[in-house]
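Entry 14. Structure prediction run on the chain below.
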Amino acid sequence: MIPVTAFAGKKVAVFGLGGSGLVSASALLAGGADVVAYDDIAESVTKANAAGIPTADLHRADWSKIAALLLAPGVPLTHPAPHWTVGLARSAGVEVIGDVELFCRERARLVPDSPFVAITGTNGKSTTTALVAHLAASAGMDAQLGGNIGTAILSLQPPRAGRVHVIECSSYQIDLAPSLDPSVGILINLSEDHLDRHGTMEHYAAVKERLVAGVPQDGTAIVGVDDEWCQKAAVRLAQAGKRVVRISVRRELSNGIYVTDGRIMRATGSGTAQIAELGGIGSLRGLHNAQNAACAAAAA
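Output returned:
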């Protein structure tokens, strides 16, 4: 577990007591925060109490004494309407954040230059995340794999030099992580999805783009450019001075990484070289998996 010390001595409300919510509450308690947790489902509250997590009805909380609302990613932040806890928090001027944000703040406090790879996209997030972690582990690194892939980020080992966190991020998690700043950010692709929670494709794409927009100037943004939304994102990132590595499985690139005839190629100003061979890897068949593999190779 990663004890979250950023809120030590402060009161934090936690809403949503599923897997990640329970881990977040425990991580905050371990870091010295004063936690009060709640859920709309009575059984979840009972489970939290059994785990030693303080609970109370947040309808009746004194929000003027609360420093932050930790919201589970499955709870609506904006669409179709903000959850009632979000309304109460905003009325009191309380920030609303998620577990990925807690990780980012703890990393910034402990080892801000520790390797952190964050992955998002409409399709292929889990495959790409698993591939990046596999490559890192194969290179002898301590690879911590988690996030939306199924393991709560705060249940991983804390950041330290030589330890890389490889984290899959959903749009919901990104929306709750204003400080998201991976050393390597990957935006695989974008197509219509989760519009019930984001309202429009424009808003959904903008949220996804935040992951790579948060990459620091000495980091790397990896962007698949085979769809219009990501193409435009890559242009904006480059204009902002970010180091951008473009990925394509549909055409050769003069500068970037592309896939042709089952080979992953890297093109630079000094020439083109093969960096990986996909032929014979049954689990990576098809263009979609070629895109995932190319993104993972770029991250490595």
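Residues 125-138 form the longest helix (14 residues).
Filed with the rest of this week's runs.
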